[in-house]
Here is the input.
Amino acid sequence: MTQKYQENQDDEAEMRLAVLVTELADQANQGKQVSLEEACLQNPEFETDLRELWGTIIVTEAAAKEQSQFSSSTRDLAIPQLELPCDFGDYRLEEEIGRGGMGIVYRASRFSDGELVAIKMILKGDFASDTDRQRFEAEADAASRLNHPNIIPIYEIGEHQGRSFFCMKLITGQSLSERLSRGPLPPQRAAKIMNEISDAISFAHQNGILHRDLKPSNIMLDDDWTAYVADFGLAKEANGRTSLTRSGAILGTPSYMSPDQATGHRGEVGITSDVYSLGAVLYHLLTGHPPFMGSTPVETVLMVLEQDPVAPRVLNRRVDRRLENIAMQCLQKPQDLRYSSATDLRNDLRAFLNNESVAASEGKFGQIIGNVFRETHHAVILDNWGLIWIWHSMVLFVACMGTYALQLYGVDSPWAYGVMWTFGLGAWAVVFWFVRRRMGPVTFVERQIAHVWAGAMCCVAFIFPLEVQFDLERLSMAPLLAVFAGMVFLIKAGILSGSFYIQAITLFVTAIIMAVFSSIAMPLFAFVSAGCFFFSGLKYYRRRKKQLDSRMG
Here is the structure.
C-alpha cells in the first residue's frame, strides 16, 4: 500500500513538473521573457529539476524560432528576394554562397577595385525587426574590432536601400562542417586547425569578446587549410555588461554548448564556456562526431548536462593520447577543471605539434588532489539533503547510544538490538524518503544512492542474526557498522563530492579502533558517524539557505 502510494505521488510530482516546463517553454515561444530565478522561487519543490531542465526550455524556444524562420508561410514568401546578379551600392552581387537563421551571404565583386568579397545582410531584408537589425549590427561590430589572421576581417559596415550589410573577406574553400561530413581529420591536421582557432578566440577574449557559438559550421577553411572564425552573431562582451544577442535566445548549439550555457545554475557564461566549445569542435575533428548528439535537441542538452563523453581513442584509435587529454580537459563539466583560458589551450596544442609534453597530461600533485576532493556536476542535489542529514545524524546518535545502554544493562537478546536498528532506521528511512519527495521528483542519481543506503541497512540487519548463528558475543560484529557507513560515503564520494572520501576514511579507521576497544565501540561510532552526517548536512543546509536569501534579496 505504501509503495503504491509512493508511486502515485512520484507520478503526480513528475506530471506537475512536466506541465510547468511546458508552460515555461510556451511562454518563451510566445516571445515572453522567462526568468529562471522567478520560476524557482514560485516552485521551490522543483528548483533542482528546473535548473537541470533549463536547457530544455531554451532549446525548445530556439527550435520554434528556427522553424518559424524557415517555414514556407505567406509572410516569408512575401519577403522580396534579390535577383542575381545585381548591383548593390559599390558591389556586384553574383551568387548566394550561404545562409543561416538570420543572415544571408553573397559572393560579390567590388566596383572600386574589382576585388572579390563576401557580403552578408539580414535574411529578412526590409522586413527585419529592430531587434534583428541590432543583433546584426552587433555581430558586425564585434567582428570588426578583431584584427587577427584567423578571424574573417570586416572591410565595411553599412546600409544600402534600407538593407544593413557588412563586407568581409571572401574565403574560397569550405566550412569545417562540410569537411567533417567526409569523416574525421588526421590528428596532426586537427591540432593545427584548433591551434589557429584557439589563438583567434584567445585574441577575441583579450579584446573583451566572447563568441558563444563555436561550431564547425562557423569555422571556414581556405584552399591552403588555413582556418577562420566566422559568425559572431551570439557574441557578448566578456565583462558581461553588454549582450550582443536578444534576451532569451539560446546561447549556442546543443552539441557544442557548455553545461553552463545549457543551464542557469552552473555559473555565468564566460571564457571557459568558449573553451568547452573549442574542445567539442576538437572532439568532432578527432572522431567524426560531436561529443554529444541525441535524437532531439532536448535529448542532446540533457546529455551535455548529465553524461560524460566517450574517450576519443575509443572511437578512433589513431588519436594521440595527449590530444585526447587536451580535448577531455576542455570538456570537463565544472568550469574550473577546464583550461582557464583559450591561451592555455593554444599553448598545449602548440606543445603537441612540437612533440612536447602537454599540461593536460602532466597532472601536478596539487591539481590531482584538488580534483579528487571536488564536487561533481551531480552535487547540486545535496542542497536538498542538508536539513534531512542533520536529522539523520540525530537519529543515528540516538540509535547508537540506545544500543550502548542495552549493552551496559546486560541485555543479551539479539531481538532487542535487531528491533532498534532494523525498525528504527527503517522507519526513519520512510520519513526521510517522504520528506525528500516533498521537495520535488527524486532524480536518478538520488535513487541510486538510496539503494546503496538501503543495501547498507540490510547488511546492518544481518549483523545480529549472524552473531546468534555463530554464537558470538553480542555486538562483537559492531565494527562492521563503521565499515558499512564508510562504504556508503565512499560511493557518495565518487558520485557527488570527493570531500566524502574524508568521511569514508574516518569511518574505516573508526572500525579498526572499535575492534580494538570493544567496550567503547558503540559510543565511538555514535559520535563519529553522527558527526559525518551532521557537519555535511549543516554545510549544505547553510548553502541552500544562503542561495534562497540571496534570491529573496
In short: The radius of gyration is 29 Å. The first strand starts at residue 86 and ends at 88.
